[in-house]
Fold this protein.
Amino acid sequence: MKKICAVVIAGFLSVLLADYSHAVDEAVASIHSSRSHDEHPAREQELTERERAWLETFYKGNMLADGWERVTEEILSKTPREMQEEQKKVLEILGEKIGREWCRDNQVRRIDTRMLRQWGEKLKQAAEEDPRKLAETIRKIDQKVNEILN
C-alpha cells in the first residue's frame, strides 16, 4: 500500500512540476519577446545622477518598502529549486524594466510607487499561495508594464 501511495504521489508531483515548468517557459518567452533586441540590460546606462539614486532605492529598498532585490529573494525562496534560476532571470528583466521607468522624475514617469506596491504584493502572494501560478502572475505584470510603456 505504501508503495502504491508513493507511486501515485510521485506521479502527481511530476505532473505539477511539468505544468509549472511549462508556465515558466511561457512567461520567459513573453518577457524576452517584449524586450527590444537593441536593449542592453545595464542598470545605470543613460540615467542622470538623480535617476541612478532612485534606481538604487528601487533595487535596495528603504525603511518604508522592500526593494526589488528583497522581493525577488522572498519569491525565489518559495519557488521550487529547479525553477529558481529561470525565475530569477525573468524577475531581473521585469525589475529592470519597471525600475528604469519608476526612477524617472515624477512628472514624466509612467510607473508610480502605488503600482510597485501592488505588483510586489501580487508576486509575493502568488509565491506564497501557489508558486506554480507565479509565472502567470509575472507574465500578467509584464504585459501591464508593456501596455503602460508603449
